[in-house]
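Both lines are retained for reference:
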Amino acid sequence: MPCRSRLLSKRTVPPSGAILDHATLHAARGGLYRDTGKRLIDLSIAALILPVLLPLMAAVALWLLAQGRKPFVARRYAGRQGRSFQVLDLNLPETGPADLRGGRNLSRLALAPRLWAVLCGQMSLIGPRPHPTVERPAQIAPVLDVLRPGLFPSDADGSVDAALIYARDLSLGLDLNLLLQALKQPAAARTTPECA
């Protein structure tokens, strides 16, 4: 079980199939952090990292063009408060960029273009797993009404229960723990089909 799943599994799991309503999530702890602090941290980190990664992303995009591939692929996800949004991802092969000549370690940049969505307020660094607009589970709707989908998903195992627990127990400490665990994971483990 991944470290992030262990962090959340120590918390009380709602009964199977339980849906936390909007009132429960709004009343959950972390109100000031959830409403203001989380966004400030997202903005600060994205604004610091994006200028550093832009030249690298441009170089990878040119390299992909030289390999005969479209550099970016667009994906549409269900966002906060029922709004959908589109992100661009580097168009790296699903089997891993090592299959392409000179492509070793490029998967670490796979999600970098999504920092723009973090900067624009469509995503958060840590949050519920992004779901394609047509595949969003009904149980996740209350979570997405109060939280943005995450660049690094809080529900590492992909379960709705983990997303609900995260939304209920949100805190700065939990987000920092999840972010550190996500950064320690190998790039291949982070880039799951749902968020790749």
